[in-house]
Structures are given as C-alpha cells and as structure tokens.
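Request: Could I get any protein with tokenized structure?
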Amino acid sequence: MTPERPVNPFRFGSLALDAAFTDRQAEIDALVADARNGQDVVVFAPRRYGKSSLVWRVAQELVREGVLVAQVDLMRTPTKDLLAAKLAKAIHEELATRLWNAKERLKVFAGLRLTPTVTVDPNDGSVSFSFDARAAEEDIDATLEELLVVLGRIASERDRRVVLVLDEFQEVVDIDRSLIKLMRSVFQEQPEVAHIYLGSKRHMMERIFNDENEPFWRSAKQMELGVIPPDLFEPYALDRFADTGKALSPDTCREALALTAGHPYATQELLYFLWEETEPGGTGGRAELDGAVEATLRSEHSHFTLVWDRASAAQRRVLQALAQEGPGRPLGADYQRRHSLPVSPTVQTALTALERAELVVRVRRGEYEIAEPFLTAWIRRYES
C-alpha cells in the first residue's frame, strides 16, 4: 500500500485555521477578553494580514466558552436587502440553531416588517433567506433594524453573551451611508452584545471611528494588526516542516522570513512553495528557496498584472522608484530627480491613491515603501 502523502501545512488565499494559523496569541487573548466583557473593538489591518483568520480563531475560543457568535461579511452584501438576508442567515445558523429546535428557530423572525423568503437546500438541509429587493426603502431599513435588535433580545432573554463580527465594515458606506447612523443607534443600546468591526481600507475606517462628526466616533477600542515578527514565525515554520516529514535549514528559514519581513500572507505563500520544493525526507535549502520564490512570483503574476494595469502612469513611476531603491522619500527633490518623477503635486496624488489601495505604506513621515513584499520583486523583473 502506498503511504499517504503529507498535506502541505501552510495556507494562503483562504482562511488559515487550526495548525495553519500562526501566532497572534496576544491579539487572540485580548479579543477574547474584550468580547467576553462586551467591549466593542475595531481591528485595523491591511489586506492579507490575516484579520479574518484571527477572528475565526477568536470565535472558536468564544464558542467553546458558550458565547454566541454571528459573523457577517459586508464585502459580500452590496445592497441592503442582501445585508438583511446575510444577517438573518447568521442569526439562524450561528445563534438560533444553538438554542432552539428547527421549528422554534424561525420564530425569531416573526414580526419583521418584511417577511423573509426561506429556502431549504434539499441536498444538505441548509437554510437561506432573501428579502424583496423591490420593497420600499423604509421597509428594508426597518427590517434591518429589527434584525439587529434581535441580537440583543436573544442575549438578554437567554442570558448569554452575543458577539457580532462585521468583516470589511467600511463597505457599509457604499451600501448606504445612512446605515452607519442606524447601526450606531441600535448598538449603543446593546450592552449585552459585543461588536467587532474588521476593516482593510484604513482611510475609510479611520473616518468612521476617528472623526468626531461620525456616529461611531470613539465608540470602540482600536486594535491594529502588524506584521508577525520573524522570531515568532521561525519556530512555527521549522515545526511544520518537521511535523510533515521534511526539514528546513534554519539559515534558509531566516532568509525566507527576511524576504517577506513577517508579512502574514506573503510568508505563508512562500513557505507553501518552499515546502512543495522540498523532497519528502529532504531539507529545504538555498536551491529550494530559489524555486519557491519563482513559484510565488508565478502565483502572483495575474494579481500583480491587474494591479499594474489599474495604476496610472504617475503611480507606476512611483512604484518603480520604490521597487528600485526600497523605502524612500518620493516627495523629495533629490529623489524625484534621481528617478525622473513628475512634479511634487502629481507625486503626492499618486502616493495618496497608492496608500488608499494599500499598495504602499508610510514608514515614517515622508518615507514610503511598497506594502506587499513580492510586488517589489515582480516590478523589478517585469516592469523596470
């Protein structure tokens, strides 16, 4: 019988769960304690920093403690009727299913302004909800408000802590800006419900939570996810290789982590390909790392090509300069001269757009660098 081939222990693209999840223990402990205490929290993190994986791990911990956790991704709810449907499904699957039998669960939605259409999948028995997209706006708003109130009512009546996770919360602005005021009016009356807001578009999240003219101003504790220090990633990487019948040279591991600088997604991606390049029973070394870098660039080629195609000419010039020189000051006269950049106002406009797209980050005042580690290598190879 052929022995079963070990499964690659590294994950990128999808949620990193269980053994694939790396460190963040301090953040997990803090979020679990905050949720348990009913403290609202806003989590800032660029795309591909693992905030969704972090909150899934937090949810696992909370559920084990008997906390009821509902999660809604606003990126997948571009309209208010779809948001209502997604919220109803989360309430049904993640709260009501744990409290009542099948007949009793749907009674939670009795009395809503709009009656949902409930569909049961004959293959797996899963339940989905939909609301009439043609309904009057005031009816949709009232239904959304009633669904949000249900969370507090369940918590109060069952004497259980409820946590509502809203992923990509900044998208609420595009769904309907009036939702911000509606949500805040409900949430401030729900001390038994902890709200966790995740966001990747920093400028929008900061406006929602840090602008004194906004309803959510200073309404939540703020947590910012950074990179994972290489000294925490190293033992994780070495252990994962060892657990799956392979070895990783410590020097190669440190070199790989230096390439990614602790960027969670990029590190998982590079380690995934490094593991694939290493033979069963073998040791990953310099040759395997070179192959892994090549595989990573191939994997990202379509994504980076799309990023490049969407960038303006000025944005491309700035990216090329940063890729060539590393962290720098594109607004400085010497820097602009060295890289033949356009005039400062044009460069400033380009930097602002690149920051909002999370392609560059401000290292310190006036100094910028490319956010994604392998975008630098890709630009050097294909666009310089």
User: Anything to note?
Assistant: Confidence is low (pLDDT under 50) at residues 16-20. Residues 286-310 form the longest helix (25 residues). The radius of gyration is 24 Å.
